[in-house]
Amino acid sequence: MTPDRRSLQDELHQSRPFRSKREECLIAILRTGAVVRRPVVRVVEDRGLSLAQYNVLRILRGAGDAGLPTLAIRERMIEEAAGITRLIDKLEASGHVRRERDATDRRQVFCRITEAGLRLLAELTPAVEAATDAGLAHLDDEHVDALLALLADVREGVR
Fold first, then answer.
1. Which pLDDT value is given to residue 9?
2. Which of 42, 49, 115, 118 has the largest CB neighbor count within 10 A?
């Protein structure tokens, strides 16, 4: 550890040592995720969205005119969303998403982003990108690549 870097234990004001290096690593991942997401959360919350709702809008924008069924949206979420129906209810009530039953299978409901939802994403994109870049600006490309590889290894090991 470099002399100018605080330990996670100090950062959390924790007096007892971690049970193991793996526990410390897990907590460091969770803490880091929380820290780097804060600026993005502020941007989307200023527009009345949760980060999960923003994620749904991005997923639906990517799906295009075809849209996606609710469960497919849930599977693509960055974080698990047990209340995906409530998320979509709120987005529909605000006019950013519309739901339609499939003509061939009435049990299936497809969600599509509306023009208002697309406009909102377009308005948010510059500020979200700036917040995203700022959160990792102190890392050079080599460190970003190494971090991405390590995080991919972690996710692969959990599956």
1. 81
2. 49
